[in-house]
């Protein structure tokens, strides 16, 4: 008679699990450790199981120190279990021992219940959860009497997800997360984890591949080249900006003076040793400078976490984390608070169009195309070698929209400049025939991106009426800055790329040729009020071999400075809000480089200091004169005075606002000094010269009209004769009738 071979699991005591399950835990293959580890009620009473690598002896305790008993070691790798005397489920703490004196405590993460609830699941599935930034990622909480961090991450196609970090020696077997089946979100409460701990998610994909990913919702990250996320306390800031926020909540942005100073935080200035300034150091230098210069807003190139300095922040791997380059998130909050206290708004350059393919980032996050499209014709960007968000997935939309709301709520930001909107709107953007997938109607419009942008703007303005959204959009897509309920995309403003392109093209030409290209200046007024425009002289115009603005100007050095002064005043007098990239306000000669500070030493030279003074005076004038800003976006605020003087390359127009004195803007774009030039004006009387770019204080030749001109009514034909300095813009304000 033969007997069957003994099973390796034979001889188990009641309640003990099979050795095969223990091995699955030890090897990180178990799909649901919460069903095995921790405290469980059996028919015979409560039973506890734990895996503590390296332990030789383990005793179980309640949090109050009550000893529950010594556990049996089932596997020498550190698996223990045994019955305990408790009356109901409670958190368990273990005391582990190895050798004689090596002893340590471990609070069991598997003895805690879930943190997320059914309402979270419902709103996530519906795509209407507007506080995901308080639920996803890593948050410090006190749960069932214990302090620790709650971690949550979306990875619906993963076999297993663990949070790993210094707190568990980066061992993916120790904090395997609980899957919420309805949403694909994995969560775990990790007791005793402290703020400042680096962490990542270890994800076992559908095909068994091991991925190590940074937290998409991380609120802090390691300094590059390290790529881990970092646990951080909830943001604490004593905000002192109620007056600032109230002003913008009640204001019509279109009728406010908005003059934006665009800044790359890493290269505006640096310390003497070449390292980055902290947010506090930036606040001490940048805020007073911007205040003195008269700008109303600072717009930062992306300050969200990114691995590669030369990407300028546009290839972000941490949309929720202010980059570690300049310090903690609290430092950024203090900077914003400091700006608001003196009335300066802060705008963040925001990148929802694409994301980089770094291994620790969002690409193939759970082993599948999760945040991006699977099809590279939809999910890969040929211009930037990046992945494109899948705007058709509710979870992806929620991730991005929650991020926009996060910056407004947590950091009180005044607006988002949305990067590369055109690349989102068109399925064939930068693609040849056959390289793109048409929409459901056979067209090239990305209807999912349209719906995303409309939802983004509706929810941003609905939840934070004081913010503004600004589209960098370079095509003729209609109604970009029109309300969603009127069929628009819902942005507050749109960058006027046509203005920038046409005017710079004109100013590169030698003055003798400009009369043949007069329409490059006048054409912009055909569409100037079709959108709410921002006039951008941005970083894009001073990189990649394009040279600085002063270097683009035609002529010798004197003419270059005169051209640029005339151009700035022309722009500040033109309808639309203003944006100028750092360094261009003092006419930096060299092309901008993110690797070094601006050439501030140039301010020792009269021409450069004169340019800075001009930009300052333009801002102060623009803000002080409602005629120059209150109807920036409405045709009633503009009237041509001279539009067809091709031969002399002279342009003149009137800026107006109800109940305010009108301002005439006159530009001579040739180096010819013109006396007795006839300028039609709407009202007889004295017109005061409130700005002249040829003034000596700005570096000009000092030609002008003695401070005022007299407009005379000659039988219904009102005009003045005036002097036009060479390559100059003059602004005249009606002084008295």
UniProtKB/TrEMBL annotation:
What InterPro entries does the database record attribute to this sequence?
A: A-amylase/branching_C (IPR006048), Branching_enzy (IPR037439), GH (IPR017853), GH13_cat_dom (IPR006047), GlgB (IPR006407), GlgB_N (IPR054169), GlgB_N_E_set_prok (IPR044143), Glyco_hydro_13_N (IPR004193)
Query: Which pathway does this chain act in?
Result: Glycan biosynthesis; glycogen biosynthesis
Q: Does the keyword Transferase apply?
A: yes
Where does the secretion signal sit in this chain?
none
Q: Which gene encodes it?
A: glgB
E.C. number, please?
2.4.1.18
Which major enzyme category is it? Answer: transferase
Q: Where is the Glycosyl hydrolase family 13 catalytic domain?
A: 262-631
- What's the family? Belongs to the glycosyl hydrolase 13 family. GlgB subfamily.
Q: Which reaction does it catalyse?
A: Transfers a segment of a (1->4)-alpha-D-glucan chain to a primary hydroxy group in a similar glucan chain
Q: Which residues form a coiled coil?
A: none
**Pfam assignment, any one:** Alpha-amylase
Share what the entry says about its subunit structure, partners included: Monomer.
Keyword Transferase among UniProt keywords: yes
Per its database record, what is this protein's job?
Answer: Catalyzes the formation of the alpha-1,6-glucosidic linkages in glycogen by scission of a 1,4-alpha-linked oligosaccharide from growing alpha-1,4-glucan chains and the subsequent attachment of the oligosaccharide to the alpha-1,6 position.
Q: What is this protein called?
A: 1,4-alpha-glucan branching enzyme GlgB
**Active site residues of this protein:** 419 (nucleophile), 472 (proton donor)
Q: Which domain of life is it from?
A: Bacteria
Key words, A-Z? Carbohydrate metabolism, Glycogen biosynthesis, Glycogen metabolism, Glycosyltransferase, Transferase
């Amino acid at each position: 008679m033969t007997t069957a071979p003994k099973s390796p699991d034979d001889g188990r005591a009641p309640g003990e699990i099979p050795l095969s399950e223990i091995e699955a835990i030890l090897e990180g293959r178990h799909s649901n450790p919460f069903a095995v580890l921790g405290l469980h009620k059996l028919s015979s009473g409560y039973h506890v199981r734990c895996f503590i690598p390296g332990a030789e002896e383990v005793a179980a305790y309640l949090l109050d120190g009550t000893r529950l008993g010594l556990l049996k070691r089932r596997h020498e790798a550190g698996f223990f279990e045994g019955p305990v005397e408790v009356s109901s489920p409670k958190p368990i703490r273990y005391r582990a021992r190895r050798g004689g004196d090596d002893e340590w405590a471990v609070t069991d993460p598997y003895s805690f219940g879930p943190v997320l609830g059914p309402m979270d699941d419902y709103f996530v599935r519906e795509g209407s959860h507007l506080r995901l930034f308080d639920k996803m990622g890593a948050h410090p909480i006190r749960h069932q009497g214990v302090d620790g961090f709650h971690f949550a991450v979306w990875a619906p196609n993963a076999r297993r997800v663990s949070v790993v970090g210094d707190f568990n020696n980066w061992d993916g077997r120790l904090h395997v997360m609980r899957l919420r089946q309805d949403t694909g979100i994995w969560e775990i409460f990790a007791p005793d984890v402290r703020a400042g701990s680096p962490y990542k998610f270890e994800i076992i994909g559908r095909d068994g591949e091991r991925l190590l990913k940074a937290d998409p919702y991380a609120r802090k990250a390691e300094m590059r080249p390290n790529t881990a996320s970092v646990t951080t306390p909830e943001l604490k800031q004593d905000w002192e900006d109620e007056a600032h926020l109230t002003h913008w909540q009640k204001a019509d942005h279109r009728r406010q003076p908005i003059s934006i100073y665009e800044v790359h935080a890493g290269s505006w200035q640096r310390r003497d040793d070449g390292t980055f300034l902290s947010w506090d150091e930036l606040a001490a230098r940048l805020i007073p400078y911007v205040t003195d210069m008269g700008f109303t807003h600072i717009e930062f190139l992306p300050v969200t976490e990114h691995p590669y300095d030369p990407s300028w922040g546009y290839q972000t791997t941490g949309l929720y984390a202010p980059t570690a380059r300049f310090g903690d998130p609290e430092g950024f909050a203090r900077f914003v608070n400091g700006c608001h206290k003196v009335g300066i708004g802060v705008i963040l350059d925001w990148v929802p169009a694409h994301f980089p393919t770094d291994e620790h980032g969002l690409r193939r996050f759970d082993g599948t195309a999760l945040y991006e499209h699977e099809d590279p014709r939809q999910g890969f960007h040929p211009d930037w070698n990046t992945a494109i968000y899948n705007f058709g997935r509710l979870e992806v939309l929620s991730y991005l929209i929650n991020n926009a709301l996060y910056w407004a709520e947590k950091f009180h930001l005044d607006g988002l400049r949305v990067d590369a909107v055109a690349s989102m709107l068109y399925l064939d953007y930068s693609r040849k025939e056959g390289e793109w997938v048409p929409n459901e109607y056979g067209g090239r419009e990305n209807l999912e991106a349209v719906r995303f942008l409309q939802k983004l703007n509706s929810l941003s303005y609905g939840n934070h009426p004081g913010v503004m959204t600004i589209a960098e959009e370079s095509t003729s897509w209609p109604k970009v800055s029109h309300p969603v309920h009127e069929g628009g995309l819902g942005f507050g403003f749109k960058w006027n790329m046509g203005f920038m392109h046409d005017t710079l093209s004109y100013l590169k030409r030698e003055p003798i040729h400009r009369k043949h290209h007069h329409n490059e200046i006048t054409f912009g007024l055909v569409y100037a009020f079709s959108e709410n425009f921002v006039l951008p002289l941005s970083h894009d115009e001073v990189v990649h071999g394009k040279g600085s603005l002063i270097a683009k100007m035609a002529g010798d050095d004197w003419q270059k400075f005169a051209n640029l002064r005339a151009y700035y005043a022309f722009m500040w007098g033109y309808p639309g809000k203003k944006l100028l990239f750092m360094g261009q306000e003092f006419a930096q000669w060299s092309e901008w480089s993110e690797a070094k500070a601006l050439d501030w030493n140039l301010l020792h030279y009269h021409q450069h200091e004169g340019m800075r003074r001009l930009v300052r005076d333009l801002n102060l004038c623009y803000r002080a004169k409602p005629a120059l800003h209150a109807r920036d976006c409405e045709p009633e605020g503009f009237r041509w005075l001279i539009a067809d003087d091709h031969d002399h390359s002279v342009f003149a127009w009137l800026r107006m606002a109800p109940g305010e004195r009108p301002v005439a803007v006159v530009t001579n774009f040739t180096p010819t000094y013109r006396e007795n030039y006839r300028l039609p004006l709407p009202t007889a009387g004295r017109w005061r010269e409130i700005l002249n770019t040829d003034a000596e204080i700005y570096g000009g030749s000092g030609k002008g009209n003695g401070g005022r001109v007299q407009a005379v009514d000659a039988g219904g034909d009102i005009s003045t004769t005036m002097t036009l300095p060479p390559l100059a813009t003059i602004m005249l304000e009606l002084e008295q009738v």
